[in-house]
Design goal:
The chain is an all-alpha fold. Among the domains are: 1-90; 128-378, no CATH class; 706-842, no CATH class; 910-962. The protein contains 35 helices and two strands. The chain has a two-stranded antiparallel ribbon with strand order 1-2. Strand 1 (487-488) and strand 2 (495-496) form a beta hairpin.
Length: 963
């Protein structure tokens, strides 16, 4: 009786469950076992019959509705629902019909009802009726609910029912929280509207608390809605045949909204819309208050009221801080990636924090501007020093330090200002960034202008310093090049070259340029690190370009110096080679002197001088010039001294030989001997030997008296004259033979022919002795008595006229003397005439001999006292003594000793300067510049020593002969 699974209790349970077929089966079984309880079975059969009659009636009505109202899906579903309450397991055909009808009606009706509910709920959200909208969405939780309960796992059904109840509870809780949330929002808005940041902070905190509680309730609601969604996804994944036309797909969409909806939707969307609306009002009022305070702050900053500006910026920051805190509360909103409309509250919080950052930046910018003005006003003015290359060489010159201190300070301000304006503002904060940038530009622009001008001056200052560097090295290079290219000497115009000194200068230039180049590169590097606006400035760029150009110029000077060093080294090498050859020639001169090879010694000495001069022409050296002058002059004097001893001996020997030829009447040979003596004497003595000169005068006189008496073999007409003389002699001999044979007429005729031949010769050589003597012989042969009278008269004529007709008289007297030296008085007359003419030296008289002895004695006294300053006087005395008595051997011997002691006066070698001057004179003469050459020789002639130079004497004579 108490078991619900047997007997009538089971039948009743099956009837209750509308499982009528099973109930009837159980009644049949029960009747078999309990035939006495017919009434109980009958009552139950009657109940089943009644309910099936109702079911059939309702089924008929359903057919009528299907026929008459095919679109009334709600009515269909209501009828089907009623029928299902009457019969759970109708027959299969009925069950199939009802199921198909129900499914078709549900699909159409629920879809239409879904759209209707969604539209109604969405409209309520837009109207701000968030709780009402949420409740409207819950109406859809009945769709397919019965089928779900009947066909699903009871545990799942229980869990689903639990969450549906939870959704209802959340709606109630959120609806209850709405008034306090609205009040908190209103209080916050009122505080902000009153511009009361302190109250705004308090009400903002309260609003955050209310909003946090509201969000917590909302998150609980979201979890329940997402459970419905997740349950559907799990069921679909498990069975694979779960369709969208079932309870869970509709339920989760009503709970959290469709994925494709582009608005707040569903129960969750209703309250998310409310949260969004609250936050939009919070954002609007907060940002508005911050912006207003910000704008007011900039107004104060424009008025230079920084205290008020900082106060308003602080207010703006406080509002932004409250907004950020409220936005942070909203970051607790739970959401899924596809949850609609949940704003990026971290980004909103960042925006408020960004506003706070901008207020701090603005305050910092204001303070920075004040510091900038204080810096500019307190900066030490840059007073430029006198332009000097040292400013760049010494990279820490005070002027440069001041310039860079100023520009670095300005750059720091500008960088700070740019730092304040840097970065990308949060979306919506672009105006703050623009305002801050504009404010910072007010002083950073001014600072940039001041900095630009400072950089301009700095670059110009350094440009001038670098220009002085380049100019200085260029000047130094020019000076060094002058040393290499030569410097004319003032006193004589001789160009002197200093390649060795120039190398020192060129190396100094190259070393200096290398160091300066590094300094300039460092200076340029510092300037090139200037900001972009400075680098783009034309004036600044021009200064840098000028510095680079100066650097290029210095590089060219560096390169030119290198090339000049190579050229200078070449000259130094040439000078050294010439100097070495000079030393070689000097040593050769010494060797030649030791070997008594005076010509070789003089030649090598002159070559040594030429090579020293060549060396000096390549490389000037005052010390070498002085030492070589002293060295060569000393050797030259030694050569002259030693050679002079030989010269004195040789000349004395030549004088003796010449005298002998003279006394023997061989004047030509005597002349040659004395000319040789003269030449030999001139080797070591520039002053002629008086003795030699006297003898040459005597011989020249004798020769001049006999000029024309002979015909030189070298004479152009010698062959013709010889032929005439030979013919005349032949004719004379023929006439003499005819005369001896008594044929006087024929002889006279032949003698006349001979005389005619002689007259032809005498037309050219009237004093020819052969023609004269032959003429005398012809005259004597023709008429001896007449010829005797002619000779007497001619001798008397010569005696009377030889002083006026010197050469003719002397020539005629010689012809007569040579014809017959025994004529009375002719010898005496010839001696008289020759003494007078100087052809012969008369024997000294006693007075001359005595005077000669006195002079010799006086000279001997000077010599014995070794008073060299008086040796010239002694020489004059001895020359006079010898002239008075040519046989005064004591005077002759003493003279040779004095001349040996004097050592010769000729200058063997000129000084380096005089040698150069001499060479210039020679060159000028070769060019035809005789006046210039003469001036140079006269300049040489001013030096008494140069007057003893044979080559200068000869050059002087050459020039004078051409002037």
């Amino acid at each position: 009786m108490g078991n619900p699974d047997v007997g009538l209790p089971k039948v009743d349970r099956l009837i209750k469950d509308r499982n009528y077929n099973e109930a009837i089966k159980e009644l049949a079984i029960y009747m078999d076992g309990n035939p006495d309880d017919f009434d109980g079975v009958q009552r139950r059969i009657q109940k089943i019959m009644t309910m099936r009659r109702d079911y059939n009636d309702k089924a008929f009505e359903l057919l009528l509705v299907l026929a008459n109202e095919p679109t009334n899906d709600k009515k269909k579903l209501d009828m089907i629902t009623y029928m299902e309450s009457l019969e759970k397991n109708p027959n299969k055909s009925t069950q199939s019909f009802i199921a198909e009808t129900k499914e078709a009606a549900q699909f159409t009706y629920y879809r239409a009802r879904f759209d209707e509910i969604m539209a109604t709920g969405g409209a309520l959200i837009e109207q701000g009726k968030y709780a009402e909208a949420a409740r409207a969405f819950t109406e859809g939780f009945t769709f397919y609910k019965t089928e779900f309960d009947e066909t699903s796992d009871p545990a799942l059904v229980a869990k689903i029912n639990e969450n549906l109840l939870g959704i209802d509870s959340s709606i109630a809780a959120l609806a209850a929280a709405e008034p306090t949330l609205s009040a908190a929002l209103a209080a916050y808005e009122a505080a902000v509207a009153a511009d009361d940041p302190a109250l705004a902070e308090t009400t903002g905190t309260a609003l955050s608390a209310e909003l946090g509680a509201f969000i917590a309730k909302r998150n609980a609601l979201a979890d329940r809605g997402w459970f419905l969604e997740d349950s559907f996804e799990r069921a679909k994944a498990a069975k694979g045949d779960v369709t969208e036309n079932s309870f869970l797909p509709f339920a989760w969409r009503f709970a959290v909204g469709r994925k494709t909806a582009e608005r707040f939707e569903g129960v969750l969307g209703a309250f998310d819309g409310e949260t969004d609306a609250v936050m939009r009002r919070v954002e609007s009022v907060t940002e508005g208050a911050s912006r207003a305070a910000w704008t007011q702050a900039y107004g104060f900053m424009d008025a230079d009221d920084m205290a008020s500006a900082y106060q308003r910026l602080a207010v703006a920051g406080r509002y932004a801080t409250v907004g950020a805190a409220i936005a942070k509360t909203c970051t607790a909103i739970a959401k899924r990636p596809d949850t609609f409309g949940i704003r990026d509250y971290p980004a909103l919080g960042f925006r408020f924090k960004d506003i706070l950052d901008y207020t701090n930046r603005a305050a910092s910018g204001g303070k920075l501007f004040g510091e900038y003005r204080a810096f500019v006003s307190s900066s030490t003015p840059v007073t430029e020093e006198v332009d000097s290359a040292e400013h760049v060489r010494k990279a820490q010159s005070s002027t440069m330090r001041k310039y860079f201190a100023l520009t670095d300070g300005l750059s720091a301000f500008i960088k700070s200002a740019q730092g304040l304006s840097s970065g990308t503002p949060a979306p919506g904060n672009e105006a703050y960034a623009s305002d801050l940038a504009a404010w910072n530009a007010r002083f950073s622009g001014d600072a940039s202008a001041v900095r630009l001008e400072s950089y301009r001056k700095n670059a110009s200052f350094q440009d001038r310093s670098v220009a002085l560097m380049a100019s200085g090295w260029k000047t130094d290079y020019a000076s060094a090049l002058t040393l290499l290219d030569g410097i004319p000497r003032k006193e004589d115009g001789l160009t002197l070259y200093y390649p060795a000194e120039s190398i020192v200068s060129f190396n100094k230039i190259r070393t200096g340029i290398t160091a300066d180049r590094k300094s300039i590169a460092q200076a340029l590097a510092l300037l090139e690190r200037a900001p972009a606006d400075v680098l783009a400035d034309e004036s600044f760029a021009n200064s840098l370009a000028a510095m680079r150009a100066a650097l290029t110029g210095m590089d060219a000077t560096f390169t030119d110096s290198g090339a000049s060093i190579a050229r200078a080294n070449s000259r130094v090498l040439q000078a050294n080679i010439a100097r070495q050859e000079s030393d070689l020639r000097y040593n050769q001169a010494l060797t030649a002197l030791r070997q008594m090879d005076f010509r070789g010694a003089r030649d090598n000495l002159q070559r040594s001088r030429e090579k020293i001069n060549a060396s000096l022409s390549f490389q000037e050296s005052a010390s070498l010039r002085a030492s070589s002058d002293q060295k060569l002059d000393s050797l030259g004097s030694e050569i002259t001294r030693i050679e002079n001893e030989a010269v004195v001996r040789e000349v004395r020997s030549l004088i003796s030989s010449g005298r002998n030829f003279y006394y023997s009447g061989d004047f030509d040979q005597a002349e040659q001997i004395f000319l040789q003596a003269k030449s030999r004497w001139s080797v070591t003595n520039s002053v002629p030997n008086t003795e030699v000169s006297t003898w040459l005068d005597i011989i020249n006189t004798a020769l001049s008296m006999k000029t024309g008496r002979t015909i030189p073999v070298t004479a152009p007409l010698y062959p013709q004259m010889s032929q005439l003389l030979s013919s005349a002699n032949q004719m004379y001999l023929e006439g003499k033979t005819l005369m001896a044979s008594g044929r006087r007429d024929a002889a006279l005729a032949r003698l006349a022919d001979a005389r005619a031949q002689l007259q032809k010769l005498q037309l050219v050589y009237p004093l020819n002795q052969d023609a004269g003597q032959l003429t005398l012989l012809i005259n004597q042969l023709i008429d001896p008595p007449a010829f005797r009278q002619f000779v007497d008269s001619r001798i008397e004529y010569i005696r009377a006229n030889y002083k006026t007709e010197r050469q003719t008289s002397y020539s005629d007297l010689l012809d007569l003397y040579q014809l017959n030296s025994s004529y009375p008085g002719i010898k005496k007359l010839l001696d008289e005439v020759e003494y007078y003419l100087g052809v012969r030296i008369p024997p000294p008289d006693p007075k001359a001999i005595a005077r000669s002895a006195e002079l010799t004695k006086a000279a001997q006294k000077i010599y014995d006292s070794n008073t060299r300053s008086q040796f010239e006087v002694a020489l004059e005395q001895l020359d006079e003594a010898i002239k008075l008595n040519s046989d005064n051997q004591r005077a002759i011997a003493l003279k040779d000793r004095v001349q040996t002691a004097l050592g010769g006066k000729n200058t063997a070698v000129l000084s380096s300067a005089d040698e150069s001057l001499y060479q210039r004179a020679v060159q000028e003469l070769q060019k035809g510049n005789k006046i210039t050459a003469s001036a140079l020789v006269e300049q040489l002639w001013q030096n008494q020593k140069n007057r003893n130079s044979t080559k200068i004497q000869e050059l002087k004579k050459r020039i004078e002969s051409q002037l």
